[in-house]
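Support request from a user on the community tier.

User writes: "When I paste my structure tokens into the form, the page sometimes reloads and wipes my input. The last time it worked, I copied everything first. Here is what I submitted, just in case something in the input itself triggers the reload:"
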């Protein structure tokens, strides 16, 4: 706790303020002490964004804090099992949505919902196809171009005819 004394018109004002120092390695100089400048909770309440400053070099950076959850293992198409990686899902969606009118906030919110659904399922293992289909359904709802981009990778299109079939399917569904 630090104290600051202000004098104005022969009145003294004591101002107390607290600076919290934490140990987190600076990405610039690797010094271990930083201070939190600003903390904000995300709209959905699942993440805290912290703005930090290195006490050694003054470099400012952002960290995100969220509860670590025991998500189910993901069973890949080839039978391998790997942990659910939130960032991997986000990157796949971001690639599909590149130069499309989908905000990062919408993507983050969807992935939060997906994580919640995986947790609530109570399953220890979930096939990757479950996640892929959920992502495709959301992209179909958001943006047809992003949907086709994702589908081309997810469904492993081999030639132009598969693209054409997917687009014709979209157009057919749009008419009904």
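"...and here is what came back when it finally went through:"
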């Amino acid at each position: 706790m630090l104290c600051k004394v202000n004098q104005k018109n022969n009145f003294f004002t004591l101002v107390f303020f607290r600076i919290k120092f934490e140990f987190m390695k600076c990405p610039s100089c690797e010094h271990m002490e930083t201070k939190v400048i600003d903390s904000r909770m995300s709209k959905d309440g699942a993440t805290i964004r912290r703005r930090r400053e290195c006490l050694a070099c003054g470099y400012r950076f952002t960290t995100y804090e969220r509860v670590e959850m025991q998500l189910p293992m993901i069973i890949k198409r080839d039978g391998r099992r790997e942990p659910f990686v939130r960032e991997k899902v986000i990157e796949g969606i971001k690639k599909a949505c590149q130069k499309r009118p989908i905000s990062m906030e919408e993507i983050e919110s969807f992935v939060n919902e997906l994580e919640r659904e995986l947790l609530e399922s109570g399953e220890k293992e979930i096939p990757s196809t479950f996640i892929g289909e959920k992502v495709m359904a959301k992209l179909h709802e958001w943006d047809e171009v992003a949907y086709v981009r994702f589908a081309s990778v997810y469904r492993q299109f081999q030639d132009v005819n598969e693209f054409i079939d997917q687009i014709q399917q979209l157009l057919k569904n749009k008419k009904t």
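Agent notes: The reload is a front-end session timeout and is unrelated to the input. The CA atoms of residues 161 and 167 lie 10 Å apart. The helical segments are 86-96, 104-121, 128-142, 144-154, 160-175. Escalated to web team.
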